[in-house]
Each structure stands twice: as structure tokens, then as C-alpha cells.
Amino acid sequence: PTDAEKRIIEVHFNENGFPGVIGAIDGTHIKIDKPNNDPDSYINRKGYYSIHMQAICDHNCKILDVFIGYPGSVHDSRVFRNSPIANNLENKCGRYFLLGDSAYPLRKSLLTPFKDRGQLTRRQINYNIKLSKNRYVIEHCFGILKQKFRQLYHIKLRKIENIAHLIRAACVLHNM
What's the angle, vertex CA 26, arms to CA 45 and CA 81, rounded to 5? Predict the structure, then answer.
């Protein structure tokens, strides 16, 4: 987004306790049929074949960035580390921030929850609650995307490259 768009987006998150935030990041799994090559790597933690999609969205569920193609067995943190946005995050965000869950690393431009080992202060607990309440937008975005393009619940294409193209196209159309 442009700087003007970032300022508009920031207002929403600021009103909800997170000044400087322009979006949220998370991953989702798109169910696929058993692939021909290395099928075991596509089995995710829930036991079905999937391809991983990482996305960043704003307060209106507009998709700002998408990274598609890792097998379902790959964890969100590894997908992030290997995504183009990981190396450019500070440049892309500038003085703004993204919100992520505990799978993501705490970075200058990426706010994540405090790890709860039973020792959190009241302020840290409140921060985690507010962060969670503001991250709903990315989960909501995934839900809307999959409702609009119901084939994303289970893609029947065979080639991983074509599956990634289909998902990417759905993300572009979602934003229109």
C-alpha cells in the first residue's frame, strides 16, 4: 500500500489498541489430492494433503502479500523464513508493523505474542489478548477467500505449479 493507504489502515488498528499496525500475517492450508511427487511431505499436521499459503491482509481483508507453494508439512515459521517478505519486511513496512501469531519471530516490523510460561504480567496478558483480537482479520480473510472460491476447500488439480497459480488468481480476484 501507499503511505496514504497505510495511514488509513493504521486508524483501524489504532482504534483497537495497536498504533502503527497495517496488517496481519498467517498461514493456511489448501487441501489437495495426493501429489505424485513426494506425497508424504504434503501431509499436514491434521493428516490431509495440503499446500501452504502465507498471506498478509489489511483491516478490510485486502490481501497485501501472498506466498504459495510449500508442502503442508512445513511449519509457518519455516515458510516465513523462506518467503520473499522475510528479507524485505522492514523495507516494506517502513515505520509500520504487522501482527503475527506465536509461529512467527518477533521482528522490528512484526509484533508477536509474549510466550506464556505462567509468568506473564497483567500488561503482557492484556497485550496478548489485544493482539489476538486484532489478528482475527487474517483468519476472517482466509474464510472469506475460501467462501468466495469454494474450490479452495479442496483443489482437484494435479500439478503443484497449477495449484499455486489457481490460488494466486483467487487472491487477486478476491481483492477486486
Answer: 85
